[in-house]
Task: structure prediction
Amino acid sequence: MAGIYIHIPFCKQACSYCNFHFSTQLSRKRELVDCLVAELEKRKNYLIGEKIESIYFGGGTPSLLEEDDLKVIFQQINQLYTVVDSAEITLEANPDDLNREKLKALKNTPINRLSIGVQSFFDEDLQLMNRAHAAHEAVNSIKNAQDFGFEQLNIDLIFGSQTTSDEMWLANLEQFKALSIPHLSAYSLTVEEKTALSHKIKSGKIEAVDEEKNYRQYILLQEFIQQNGFEQYELSNYCKSENYAKHNTSYWLGKSYLGIGPSAHSYNGSSRQWNVNNNIKYIQAIKSGENYFEVEELSEIERYHDYLITALRTKWGIDFKEIDAFSEKISTHFYKQIKQLNYPGIIHHKLGLSVDSAHLFQSDEVVRELMIG
Ligand code: SF4
Result:
């Protein structure tokens, strides 16, 4: 089974910390949707007939799509691919888009899961991040989504920002709990190069991110999660009752996925490929039949490293069966290295190896010990 990722590269405004690919020029949205539909056709053999168990609309801001845009995309997917009945179909949405009219329209599509970009329930955080929504809209959007029967909900929250005190972070988590949302993605604020946030820090307009506070708020999150019956199943992802996000979990477990749209990445077990991250170049190339992506064939060592990086971020960790499927040189190296591992939080199972949730944020250090070269 495999997944399809569809990148919707438009946003109403640029968030100060964001380095994803998007454009605020929405005039070519419909033309781009037509190109997504064309790319689905062009690449219909990429997954070699594998059934589709997840579809994920990411961005950018997929909630800017109209019902008609979504319908043509689903029509094409259903014509070309076999989507299983139990497929998870997620749309990333911003709170300012999720009014009752939009939710009614989304209910007319196969979308059965919403991932809402809340980030914070405090206006001062949202202003620092230059988000397009206000705190009250975040709460209303979640309640509206629940009223319309969207039970599979995720929200994104960001901790460690300059404006987020420990009390505010705990209040954000309490608000998340009070709204009975089954899934949380929580990230520390990362300052990426060439973002407005990075410029403001460099020019002294705002202070740098405080790494100690970041860590403290991560620990507050761990405590909150444990006290409230949530499970951390990946470095940044938490849920109740095994409500794991199928799409993201399949990335971490190394399954194949087809990425459609500007900047989208694809993976098929032996190579990675990524589309041009420019809307105009993408549209022109799709229309004229020119090349619009780059491909990297993965060496065995690269595949081994990819597996370590993704598997060790999850609660399932490394599966010895997967290691044994690599060449003897790689598996011998792995088994030799794990005997010498001396990190807190390492759990040796009969059939694998993982890192406990209190130390998951250090899993990169363990990965480095297990890498080759
Ligand atoms: S809405 Fe999402 S993709 Fe768009 S600028 Fe903000 S963080 Fe980036």
Observations:
- Residues 11, 14-15, 18, 20, 22, 59-61, 94, 117 surround iron/sulfur cluster (CB under 6 Å).
